[in-house]
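step 3/5: co-fold with magnesium ion
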Amino acid sequence: MSDKDVTEVLQADAEGIARAARILAAGGLVAVPTETVYGLAARADSAEAVAKIYAAKGRPDFNPLIVHVRDLAQAEKIGEFDARARDLVERFWPGPLTLVLPLREDAKVAGAVTAGLPTIALRQPAHKVMRAVLEETGSPLAAPSANRSEEISPTRPEHVIASLGKACPVVLDGGASQKGLESTIVALRPDAAWSLLRPGPVSHETLERILGAETGADNASIEAPGQLARHYSPGKPLRLSAAEVAPDEFFIGFGGQQGDCNLSAGGDLNEAAAQLYECLHQAAASDKPRIAVAPIPYGEVGRAINDRLRRAATRQN
Ligand code: TXA
Ligand code: MG
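step 4/5: write tokens
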């Protein structure tokens, strides 16, 4: 879209939003703010536009994308919604919950979006800037996190630029992402079974209260294909549940344990989730060759924080 050497940063005022929507409608790429993380968006109904996402991220083509919709009516043209899906939408949309549902046969979505799967991942984001972009663009937008494949997800425009550089031509600046962790992904099966494909801001406990016990968890074939072990990599060794810190380690603290960067001094897990990628970006950029992280409890959003940290700690041999 742009032959400039640097990424263009658009302010999220009426003019910036209108320009982002025009670029998207014309088949271009724009990094957009959401309440979870920044997404690298393109119109989901254009094979050419979607191909640009995979190229910019260096993303393997077996890893499908989430489609962001303006409302339930738009989503129902793409996925098959049953009563459970509508109930979850009623409770959590707009918000950080992605539903994996059967793909409608007549859905106008480029094949690369689903990587050939018979299912589709759908989400209505809550961020008001992203909602305005969806409204003005008119088409559903495919958008994975706006980072190079395997790198740390971005919660600020600076993170997008540090990871993608000019592979991302335009960023719409909507400030820091409020949740700071990618959406929870739930797969609903036609036979009443369901499984948590990715833990996130909507907790497993909450979902079990609504849907009953998780049923599909041990079926490896329904894992989100993108949940590769090595993901969210800060590019240096990372040690979990550290009780003390070595001098060459960048320490990410929590609660009583003060660090070079703190997830939450007061021990609040939602604040820790919102700070996680910010601290990992700082740790990656620091002079220290290694990273240590304080123990994080597992309840509620703690499960998602520990999931991301475990993946960040996984090194390829
Ligand atoms: O919060 C979020 O979800 C952010 C913002 C931008 O919305 N997006 C995001 O996208 O995290 P991405 O591409 O980084 O992660 C999408 C995940 C991948 O793990 C992918 O495998 C999974 O969703 N996924 C997409 N379609 C799927 C499907 N049909 N079945 C199973 N998993 C799917
Ligand atoms: Mg991602």
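step 5/5: annotate
The pocket of threonylcarbamoyladenylate (ligand 1) is lined by residues 34, 36-37, 39, 63-66, 96, 98, 100, 114, 117, 119-121, 123, 143-145, 182-183, 185, 197-198, 224-227 (CB under 6 Å).
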